[in-house]
Write a structure and sequence with these properties.
single chain, mainly beta
Amino acid sequence: MNPPGAPTAVLPDTLTPRHLGAPMTNDQFRQALQELHGDRDLAVYFGTAEHLVSQANPCMVKRAMLIPSEEDGLVKVTDGKAIYIIDAEKVAWIKIG
């Protein structure tokens, strides 16, 4: 319970384009992933303005490494065992930890 006179937060019931903003480009997403050198984990949460995909099931990449940009322009990360190709426009948010 908030003390009298304290501000209260109003959270939206659903996410709309105003809440999520414009999708990231591959270049913006690649810039956000520059810290991945194999010593941190990556969690990618997918969604659009119309529908946020389950927050309980992100794409998890343990000890993620960003693969340098290639001619195909795709954003790729690896855990050393598999390569994950990520569509930046479908990413709602990420966690690097």
